[in-house]
Write a structure and sequence with these properties.
By secondary structure, the protein is an alpha/beta fold. It folds into three domains: 14-118, Alpha-Beta Plaits (2-Layer Sandwich), CATH 3.30.70; 149-284, 3-Layer(aba) Sandwich (Dna Topoisomerase Vi A Subunit, Chain: A, domain 2); 306-400, AICAR transformylase, duplication domain (Cytidine Deaminase, domain 2, 3-Layer(aba) Sandwich), CATH 3.40.140.20. The chain is built from 15 helices and 19 strands. The strands form five sheets. A five-stranded antiparallel β-sheet has the order 2-3-1-5-4. β4 and β5 (103-114) form a beta hairpin. The longest helix has 23 residues, at 115-137.
C-alpha cells in the first residue's frame, strides 16, 4: 500500500487517522461518498461534513485502499482546522459509518494527531541547527579574543633570570626539574601551553647561569630539529650537567610546535649519556678533560669523586662491566640476575618484579627512580650519576660513580 502524503488546509490543527474494512470490493469515491452520506444530518448544521469542507474547516478526505481476498482495507485521513472537541466529535462520527455501497463496513479511529506537535519538533530541530551554527561560527571569535588575552598574560609571565637576564618561566626556581631551550620565542611557546619551568640559553655561548642550574636541578635540553640543534646539544653536553635530551620533529623549531608536539617530544627524551654514546661525544669529553690544567683536573676529581660507599664489591665489579652498555640489571638478595633491560625500560620492568634487592645500571639515578625502587624494597641503587635528590630512604644505599 502506498504511504499517504501530507495533506494541508489553510490552518490544519489536527489529523484524524482511521482504519477501514469493507466486506467487498470498493474504491475511494465509494468510501468518501459513504462518509458524507451517512454522517449527513447527524451532527447538525454546524458540523455538517460537506459544509465543513466547503468552508475550509476540514480538508480533503484521503483514503488509501487495497483489495485482498474479496475485501477492501485501508486508511483514512481527515485534516481538521476545528477545535479539539469538534474534531473529536467528527472522528466519532466516522465510526458510525457501517456500510459502503452494498457491503458492510467498519471504520475505527486509530488516533487524532495534533499537527502542532510536528511544528514543535521542527522548531526544536531548527533551533538546534541555528544554535550549533552560532556556536561554531560566532563563539570561536570570542574564544580567539580570550586566547589572545591569555597569550598576553603568558607573555607577561616571561622573566629575566640570572645575571645574564635569560628569558625564563616563573617556575624555574621552585621546580626540581627544568627545561632548557634555545631562545625567547621557545620560552613563549612553552608558556603558551602551560609549561613554566623553562629557561632559554639566549645566545651562542652557554651562560654561567645555565651551568649553575644544571648542577642543582634535573635538566632536559629541548632544541630545534635541525643541524643547529645538534650543535647546541654537543656544546651543552661538554659544558653543562645535562640529564636528558630531546628535539623537535625534524625540520621544525620549538617555537612553532603545537601542545601535542611539545608533550610528545618531552615524552621521547632520552638520558644524556645515552645520546652522547650514540653520537660519539665521549671522545670529545675525553679531549676536553685532557686539555684541562692540573688544578682543574684535581678540582673536578674532588667534585666528581663519590664518597666511599657501603656497597658489596661484586656489585661494583658488575657496575664496571656495564659501563657504556646503557643497560640495567636487577639482582635478588642472593646476587642472582633476575632481569636485564635497557636503561630506559627499567621503570616498566621494576613494576613487574618482586623481590628486587639491587639495581645496577649504566644510567642516571633520579628521584623518580629512587621512589620507585624504595617502594619495591630495593636496598642498593647504583648508577653513573645522580640528580638532585630530595628524598632518600635510610634503608636505600645509593652509589653514583
Amino acid at each position: 500500500m502506498r504511504k499517504l502524503g501530507k495533506i494541508y488546509i489553510d490552518s490544519v490543527k489536527y489529523q484524524i487517522h482511521a482504519n477501514i474494512e469493507v466486506n467487498g470490493l470498493v474504491d475511494k469515491p465509494d468510501v468518501i461518498g459513504a462518509i458524507f452520506g451517512q454522517t449527513e444530518g447527524l451532527l447538525g448544521d454546524e458540523l455538517e461534513m460537506r459544509e465543513l469542507q466547503k468552508t475550509g474547516r476540514i480538508g480533503r478526505i484521503e483514503a488509501e485502499l487495497e483489495h485482498k481476498s474479496g475485501k477492501t482495507m485501508g486508511k483514512i485521513i481527515v485534516p481538521s482546522g476545528l477545535g479539539m472537541v469538534e474534531t473529536a466529535i467528527v472522528a466519532a462520527a466516522l465510526e458510525t459509518v457501517d456500510r459502503v455501497g452494498p457491503y458492510d463496513a467498519k471504520i475505527s479511529v486509530e488516533k487524532i494527531e495534533d499537527t502542532r506537535d510536528a511544528k514543535r519538533k521542527y522548531l526544536i530541530t531548527r533551533a538546534k541547527e541555528l544554535l550549533s551554527r552560532m556556536l561554531t561560527e560566532e563563539i570561536p571569535d570570542t574564544k580567539d579574543v580570550i586566547e589572545r588575552v591569555k597569550s598576553e598574560l603568558r607573555i607577561s609571565d616571561v622573566q629575566q633570570y640570572g645575571k645574564e637576564k635569560l628569558p625564563a618561566g616563573p617556575a624555574v626556581d621552585e621546580s626540581e626539574e627544568i627545561i632548557i631551550v634555545e631562545g625567547r620565542a621557545d620560552v613563549l611557546n612553552l608558556l603558551k601551553h602551560g609549561i613554566k619551568n623553562v629557561i632559554a640559553i639566549g645566545g651562542n655561548r652557554i651562560p654561567r647561569t645555565i651551568i649553575d642550574l644544571a648542577r642543582r636541578k634535573t635538566t632536559t635540553l629541548f632544541v630545534d630539529g635541525d643541524r643547529g640543534g645538534d650543535l647546541i646539544i654537543r656544546e651543552m653536553l661538554q659544558k653543562a650537567d645535562i640529564d636528558f635530551i630531546t628535539k623537535a620533529p625534524d625540520g621544525k623549531e620549538v617555537e612553532e610546535l603545537t601542545q601535542k608536539e611539545i608533550l610528545k617530544s618531552l615524552r621521547r627524551k632520552i638520558p644524556a649519556d645515552e645520546y652522547a654514546a650514540h653520537v660519539g661525544l665521549k671522545k670529545a669529553e675525553a679531549k676536553r678533560k685532557a686539555q684541562m690544567t692540573k688544578a682543574e683536573k684535581e678540582a673536578a676529581k674532588k667534585e666528581e669523586a663519590p664518597p666511599a660507599p657501603n656497597v658489596p664489591p661484586e656489585y661494583l665489579k658488575m657496575f664496571d662491566e656495564l659501563k657504556g652498555s646503557l643497560t640495567a640489571r636487577v639482582l635478588d638478595e642472593s646476587g642472582n640476575i633476575v632481569a636485564e633491560v635497557p636503561v630506559r625500560e627499567i621503570w616498566k620492568k621494576l613494576k613487574e618484579l618482586e623481590g628486587a634487592h639491587a639495581i645496577i645500571m649504566d644510567g642516571i639515578v633520579t628521584q623518580r627512580l629512587v621512589d620507585a625502587a624504595a617502594a619495591k624494597g630495593v636496598k642498593y641503587l647504583i648508577g653513573v650519576k645522580k640528580t638532585k635528590l630530595e628524598r632518600v630512604p635510610e634503608e636505600l644505599t645509593i652509589y653514583a660513580g
